Amino acid sequence: MTPSIVLLTFLVILSLGSYGYSQLLDSKCIATHRMRIIGGQDAQRTPWMAYLIRDNNFACGGSLIAHRFVLTAAHCTEVNDNLFVRLGEYDSSRTTDGPTRLYRVVSIYLHENYKDFRNHDIAVLKLSRKVVYDAYIRPICIFLNSGYQAFANSMQDFILTGWGLMAHNKMPTTLQKMTLRRVSNEHCGAPGLNICCWNPMQYACFGDSGSPLVSSVKYGQSTIYVQFGVASFVTGECDGYSSYLDLTSHMSWLSQTLSRNWA
Description:
- With 263 residues, the chain is mostly beta strands.
- The chain has 2 domains: 47-139 and 252-261, Thrombin, subunit H (Beta Barrel); 147-248, Thrombin, subunit H.
- The protein contains 3 helices and 15 strands.
- It has a 6-stranded antiparallel β-barrel. Strands 4-5-6-9-8-7 form a 6-stranded antiparallel beta barrel. A two-stranded antiparallel sheet has the order 2-3.
- The radius of gyration is 17 Å and the shape is globular.
- It starts with 12 loop residues before the first strand and ends with a helix.
């Protein structure tokens, strides 16, 4: 991500209003008080982030969505040999910034209509064993209600986290965060099933692929982070718009994929 090392977090709080309570894919995505604070330190550092590794090198971002499943971009799995997922990662150059766990990817499920990064660029990874949640590792919230599309379409402000390329072609070791604003898909040259975003000061870049596009939503008495997109591609030389798969438009596929492979 570019251009700043220190990126500001912009919190967007929305209300579901007339949509009421939406069914969550995994209700454990809502942090308990005990999961928020450990030893007086803030442990809520996007604990759903997944660090994809291929041949001992960083490959892509992703998001933990359930006990054995990670969501990422399909193009991140085209070379699928020897793929692993590290959870609880924050600074890949250190071993003392929090507990991390490594999982082998045993199955990869691609959208049947995936052709390239502009169309249905979504994949589900099944992990070798069940993930135990704690303050550093917890899934992102995902709404399953089919009637939720209109609300999702009204979302304008998002947050992207990832380990993508920064200014001067530098890859960060520390998880970066930026804010984005939805714009017309014409700016990205993307089809309708994607979300086009832009920020005049910060840009998504190579390496952010597969990372979750999220926003905070008021859910009952809680404010939760909900995933709305999956980072797919950027325009130009990481100095313009970025496109994200619209997760809500692919909810039927995601639900069916998980139900068929849950065991």
